[in-house]
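A quick aside before the break. I want you to see a complete sequence-to-structure record at least once, exactly as it would be stored in a machine-readable document. Don't worry about memorizing anything.
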Amino acid sequence: MASATAAGSPAGPAAPKSRRSVTGTRRAVAALFLLPALVLLGALVLYPIGYSVVRSLYDSSGDQFAGFDNYKALFTDDGIRTALKNNVIWVVFAPTVSTALGLVFAVLTERVRWGTAFKLVVFMPMAISMLAAGIIFRLVYDQDPDKGVANAVWVGVHDSFAQSSAFPKAHPGRKSPLVGQDGAFVTKDPVRAGSPVALPMVGVAPDKLPDDVRRAAAARPEPGRVTGTVWQDFTRGKGVGRLGAPDPAEVGYAGMRVEAVKDGKVVASAKAAGDGTFTLPASADGARLRLPAGNFKEPYNGVDWLGPALVTPAIIGSYVWMWAGFAMVLIAAGLAGVPRELLEQARVDGASEWQVFRKVTVPLLAPVLAVVAVTLMINVLKVFDLVYIIAPGSSQDDANVLALELYRKGFSEGRPGVASAIAVFLLLLVIPVMLFNIRRLRREGRR
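That is the input. The structure line, written in tokens, reads:
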């Protein structure tokens, strides 16, 4: 009986089974492996967040409790309000433009042979740090067309339609009969037909003269006509020469416009030849000669890309240059998973390519587009490097963003309490976007 009982029932209570995680690993072992990561997370994330919250409630010295005074500065300080306004512009335009360009690039390169090479080129800026990209675009946006690529292109296009003056710094010489008048130069006395007029000028560097200039020549008298010469009355390295008369080494002002003015009206006009000579008809007799202000207009110097008006759009452009490739790669990966049968069926039903793109491709890519847009929104909320490097000191206040203002308040102005308040405010701005992304990922997982 005893042996049967021993064989039929356990000798004692059952030993408890060790608790295991869903992966089959003991939870204690899993916690042990997670401990280093949790320590780093607490030290590098949780502690700084908690310290920033506490520090934002104290004054600049950190000794006296200031309550919410630092948070009031977020809405009363002009610099912070400008930064907040610019952050709104960044959040609205930078992710939108980057995502839209990424979508266009991904769709257009899907069917071309060199699509992979194009994607590689577009994605390549992602390999460059924000600091390096800022230095690159600081040079791209340089005001000097000889340095800045943007203005070099812009000036080249502008000068193709509106030629700049070749004599921006020219002015009358010492023995010139010309006097200044509203940016132009006019002869003191009326001119007479048959008597050549000498209009000596100085002020143009020899290497800046037009290519078609020739040796200056004295104008010959012509009956019934007004003739004259306008020339550079200076020879570099060869002495003064004869003032008021063309010397053999002096050159004419080719293309200089000369007008004859009577009673405030232009009665005749001409352009100087390569040797500086010009001829006016008989109607110019008794008129005063005028070199209009257009002859001395400063050359077009391009757009002030980094000025107060355009600095923020210019920096956003550099950001789009960097991150459009990121958006393109993610969207292209999503596009590869789109069922081709749906696209072909839409084409068979008579839909145009634009309709297929707008009503089939984009809706199917909506989850991927949301991931890209949300990721870029979080990224631009903390943009700092590009603004700090690209915006010059004269317009940095106009390009200010919250991350840059945090740095300035904390390190340049010595107001760590306000800087901590800005950091907490940025965290509060990012949290809703992160929660939206987490909820969307969970919905995708349940599907």
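Two observations worth writing down. The chain has two domains: 69-152+305-446, 171-296. The CA atoms of residues 308 and 398 lie 6 Å apart. We'll return to this after the break.
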